């Protein structure tokens, strides 16, 4: 276990120092990391510039989905949701709660229904504005399943079998390796291209899926003529957030999460369980903030992370102090969203209306794409 952890801690350093990772900044601050969530810069190396406001050109369309397979966690937020919030101002944004995808691992109907509404409430609480973006539930626009089948016919099985997430899921749920797990990236490609979206804000763990979506689009376009744009991934400045184990990607199915909208006590419990620098055995040992997941997360929850790191390096502070501080900052940061979430959960009718309107708003886009695709493939 020690060797495994050591390896992973090296991975942590690599992860946080990957090219293009930009610590957040707040207006008026020149210090890296002096940011609050939802206000920092994103890595736009792959994103096309939005159309200038004065031109009448339509805004580029973006699409992203999130599974209602559990409570939203810091990885979801730092890796993706904050980009959803930022980008809704500049792009024509379509966001989807992907319940069909969640069915590959959640098989309890009541749980899926409840978590779908909870995820919708969470996204609205975290800043998605139904006036500025479209939020809907995947299964409410069922055209996507037809398109997934059509795309499956241009997708070699070998492309799907080599997907890293498929390999991981096979390990995580060996008793339930269903066909949906293998076909997941085809449905994901269909999600994106049904709306002809060209930009997809996701965490880095989705990079391989996005690359596969691009290959599927190319295969379709070659066989049936130019139809879909090749979608490009857009990452945030925290493209991979590690879980409380400090080893694996933070993930609902692994259970190594810090749930951002949980009660303060639950957040404290989850943060206090985090694995830190495994080589720092004694309180007097100097810490290594570069490989400590707790120290790395501090970058996103305060302006003074460098002082915190210095405290660790000089052993002035211990891991427990640093974790306590992180827990309180996370609790404080998400307090307004938690409050708003509680209100929304108490008004399920309002949330359901937002989702129904979202699905209806994009119906014409989905129908137009399907008409074109059926015609091109010889189905009509
Ligand atoms: N640890 C992470 N770091 C950065 N980004 C992350 N995302 C997820 N985990 C991290 C991004 O969040 C978006 C929504 O992800 P998802 O919930 O639909 O599926 P996922 O990536 O599979 O997330 P989980 O928690 O690991 O879900 P389960 O366990 O159900 O499979 C995506 O953009 C993702 O990149």
Layout of secondary structure:
Layout: H1 2-16, E1 61-66, H2 74-87, E2 92-97, H3 99-102, H4 109-125, E3 133-137, H5 143-152, H6 157-161, H7 164-172, H8 179-193, E4 199-201, H9 207-224, E5 232-234, H10 264-272, H11 293-298, H12 305-313, H13 319-333, H14 335-345, H15 348-361, H16 363-377
Parallel strand pairs: 1-2, 2-3, 4-5
Helix pairs in contact: 4-14, 5-8, 8-9, 10-13
This protein binds adenosine-5'-tetraphosphate (AQP).
Account of the protein in words:
With 380 residues, the chain is mainly alpha-helical. The chain contains 16 helices and five strands. It has helices spanning 2-16, 74-87, 99-102, 109-125, 143-152, 157-161, 164-172, 179-193, 207-224, 264-272, 293-298, 305-313, 319-333, 335-345, 348-361, 363-377, and strands spanning 61-66, 92-97, 133-137, 199-201, 232-234. The strands form two sheets. A three-stranded parallel β-sheet has the order 1-2-3, with helices on both faces. The protein has a two-stranded parallel ribbon with strand order 4-5. Strand 1, helix 2 (74-87) and strand 2 (92-97) form a beta-alpha-beta unit. Helix 10 (264-272) packs antiparallel against helix 13. The longest helix has 18 residues, at 207-224. It is globular and about 75 Å long. Residues 1-46 have low confidence and may be disordered.
Q: Name the bound molecules.
A: adenosine-5'-tetraphosphate
Indicate the structural class: mainly alpha
Terminal CA distance reads 58 Å
Low-confidence stretches: 1-46
The tally of beta strands, per DSSP, is 5
User: For the report, how would you describe the main beta sheet?
Assistant: 3 strands, parallel
Anisotropy-based shape: globular
Provide a count of the helices.
16
The rounded Rg comes to 21 Å
Percentage of residues in DSSP E strands: 5-15%
Helix content: 40-55%
How are the strands ordered across the major sheet?
1-2-3
Order of helices and strands: HEHEHHEHHHHEHEHHHHHHH
Average pLDDT: 87
């Amino acid at each position: 276990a020690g060797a495994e952890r050591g390896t992973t801690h090296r991975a942590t350093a690599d992860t946080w120092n990957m090219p293009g990772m930009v610590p957040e900044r707040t207006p008026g601050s020149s210090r890296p990391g002096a940011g609050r969530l939802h206000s920092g810069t994103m890595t736009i190396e792959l994103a096309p510039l939005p159309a200038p406001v004065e031109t009448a050109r339509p805004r580029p369309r973006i699409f992203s989905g999130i599974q209602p397979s559990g409570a939203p966690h810091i990885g979801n937020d730092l890796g993706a949701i904050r980009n959803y919030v930022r980008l809704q101002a500049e792009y024509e944004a379509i966001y989807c709660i992907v319940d069909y995808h969640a069915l590959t691992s959640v098989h309890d109907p009541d749980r899926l229904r409840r978590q779908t509404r909870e995820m919708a409430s969470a996204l609205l609480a975290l800043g998605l504005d139904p006036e500025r973006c479209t939020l809907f539930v995947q299964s409410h626009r069922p055209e996507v399943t037809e398109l997934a089948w059509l795309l499956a016919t241009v997708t070699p099985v070998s492309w799907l079998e080599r997907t890293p997430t498929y390999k991981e899921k096979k390990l995580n749920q060996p008793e339930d390796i269903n066909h949906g797990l293998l076909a997941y990236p085809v449905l994901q490609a269909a999600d994106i291209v049904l709306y002809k979206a060209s930009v997809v804000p996701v965490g880095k763990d989705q990079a391989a899926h996005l690359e596969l979506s691009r290959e599927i689009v190319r295969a379709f376009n070659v066989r049936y003529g130019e139809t879909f744009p090749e979608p490009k991934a857009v990452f945030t400045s925290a493209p991979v957030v590690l879980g409380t184990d400090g080893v694996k990607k933070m993930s609902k199915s692994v259970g190594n999460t810090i749930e951002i909208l949980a009660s303060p006590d639950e957040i404290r419990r989850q943060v206090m369980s985090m694995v830190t620098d495994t080589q720092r055995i004694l309180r007097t040992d100097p810490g290594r903030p570069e490989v400590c997941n707790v120290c790395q997360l501090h970058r996103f929850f305060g302006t003074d992370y460098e002082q915190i790191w210095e405290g660790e390096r000089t052993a002035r502070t211990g891991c427990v102090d640093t974790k306590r501080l992180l827990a309180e900052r996370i609790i404080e940061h998400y307090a307004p969203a938690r409050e708003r979430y509680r209100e929304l959960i108490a008004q399920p009718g309002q949330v359901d209306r937002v989702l129904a309107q979202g699905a209806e708003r994009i119906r014409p886009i989905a129908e137009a794409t399907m008409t074109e695709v059926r015609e091109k493939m010889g189905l009509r």
